[in-house]
Amino acid sequence: MSVRASSREIEQTAAEWLARCDAGTCTGAERAALKDWLTQDSAHKVAYLRLQTAWSEAGRLRVLAAGRPQDASAHAVPTHHRDRRAQMLEALQPRARPRHIPRTRWFHVAAAAALAACALLLGWSLRPVPPVAASVYASTLGQVRSFALADGSRATLSSDSRIEVRLLPHARDITLVRGEAIFEVAKDPTRPFTVAAAGYRAIAVGTRYGVRQDASNLRVIVTEGTVRLESPASGQPARPAVLLPAGSLALVQGGSVLVRSLAVAQARELLDWPSGMLAFHDAPLSEVVAEFNRFNARKLVLADGAAAALRVGGNFRWDNEEGFVRLLEAGFPVRAEAGDDRIVLHSR
Fold this sequence. Notes:
Blueprint: H1 7-23, H2 28-40, H3 42-58, H4 60-64, H5 81-92, H6 104-122, E1 135-138, E2 145-148, E3 154-157, E4 162-168, E5 171-184, E6 193-197, E7 200-204, E8 208-214, E9 217-224, E10 226-230, E11 242-245, E12 248-253, E13 256-261, H7 264-270, E14 277-284, H8 285-295, E15 299-302, H9 305-308, E16 311-317, H10 321-331, E17 334-338, E18 342-347
Parallel strand pairs: 5-6, 15-18
Antiparallel strand pairs: 1-4, 2-3, 3-5, 4-5, 5-8, 6-7, 7-10, 8-9, 9-12, 10-11, 12-13, 14-16, 17-18
Helix pairs in contact: 1-3, 1-5, 2-3, 3-5
């Protein structure tokens, strides 16, 4: 697989081009080179269009004259295109999303302290006591939630997801009931951290990885450390375990496991949804639409196969489907028909 530029690198290049054009320093040869760069990859065109939109909405003169009391409608002082480039990239940055801290966290801390005190008073063994039942964590549609687990690990749940956690003396067992979750695993070689989903087990002792279950399909992405993906449990043909180092993407479909090696930065982009972003690399529009629909009640609907087959690349906010649709109409042969509960995308 060829190594693609990261989204950040593409955005920086797009900002360089847009800054040159905005400063009026582009030569004819440079404009031809820009046109060639835009046609090389749909991600280039998407980044350039997003930057144009963000720059326009931010207000070029207002940004250049920031902190000055006068109206920015007059002639602005010329600014070097590299200064424009930095301002453009700043305008493109998504607003920070506050981290949700569950109120139940303090209850669990207090309960754990009380349990430890009782154990000492009654002379119990210092070994952890297995919980009677699993701890359940869940998110609703359009909600991303992060939970601190009792072993020091963290689980971040995507939209409409659910996990069950059992922390035992010699094991940490998690079941992904539905949806997707990212696990930042606290190091503990004596207690493997196992995520079970779709009949498979993704096992680690200290790492960061994402597991996603969709119907009978499974996706595992590793951004730190190494994960061991084990074949289905009893009753299924035995298969060797697959070791997934950082930068691995494993897809399980119909009992077959396909592993791809990505740049670690690209693997991280695919798990960037906690920050509000979805990343795609030359993906069919059908896949992009499915991702948006996982997070939004108002659904995107493809009207025909030609629209579904369009290839799209770039980073998009999953909570701004209308902005995504406007970008499609501006840069792709797509016409949108908006309704109250859905947006139908037609090819044109």
